[in-house]
Amino acid sequence: MGDTMKPVVIAGLALVAVLFLVMPALACDIPDEPLTQGYWKNHPGEWASEEKFSNFFKSGDSYLGVLKTPTRGNAYYILAHQHIAAYLNGAAWTEIGSIREVWWEAKSLFCTYGPDEIARMKGNDPVRRQFVSLAETLDAFNNGHYS
User: Are residues 65 and 119 in the same domain?
Assistant: First the structure.
C-alpha cells in the first residue's frame, strides 16, 4: 500500500470504530415496546405529534396539561393518562391493533364527559367503573402486557 493510501485507510478505520461505539447507543434509544404514561409525561420532546398543545376533549386543558394533572382518584384523569399514552404509542412506534376498540370507546367517553362530571360520580357508578375498566386495559397495553 502506498503512502498516499494510509491516511484514507486510517480515516476509514476510525469511522468504523466510531460507528461500532456510537450506533449501539443510538439503537438503544428507540423502544420496541409501548411506553408508559409516566415516560410520555416526562419526555414531551419525544412525542411524534403536536397533540401536546391541542385541547384534550372537554378537559379545558392540553394533552400535556392533562397528562401532568395528578389523578387524585378522578377516573377521568386515570383513563386520560392511559389514553394519551396509548395514542402516543400508536402514533410513534407501535400499532394499536387489538387495543383500537378500547381506545375508541375511551375517546367516545371523553367526547361525552368532562373531568368535573366524572369527579362527582361515586365509586360504584357504572360510567365511572367503565372509565376505570378501560384505563386498566390501556395500562396493560402501555406496559406491554396486552396481546
Answer: yes
pLDDT in tens, 101-140: 899 999 999 999 999 999 999 999 999 999 999 999 999 9
Residue 114: inside a domain: yes
Q: How far apart are CA 1 and CA 17, in angstroms?
A: 21
pLDDT in tens, 47-88: 877 788 999 999 999 999 999 999 999 999 999 999 999 998
Domain of residue 19 covers: 1-30
Transcribe the chain into DSSP letters. --TTTHHHHHHHHHHHHHHHHHHHHHHHTS-SS---HHHHHH-GGG-SSSGGGSB-GGGSSBHHHHHTS--TT-HHHHHHHHHHHHHHHHHHTS--GGGHHHHHHHHHHHHH--HHHHHTS-TT-HHHHHHHHHHHHHHHHHTT---
Count of the separate structural domains present in the chain: 2
Q: What does the alpha-carbon distance between residue 12 and residue 10 come to, in Å, rounded to a whole number?
A: 5
Radius of gyration, alpha carbons of the chain: 22
pTM for the whole structure: 0.76
d(Cα 67, Cα 31) in Å, to the nearest integer? 20
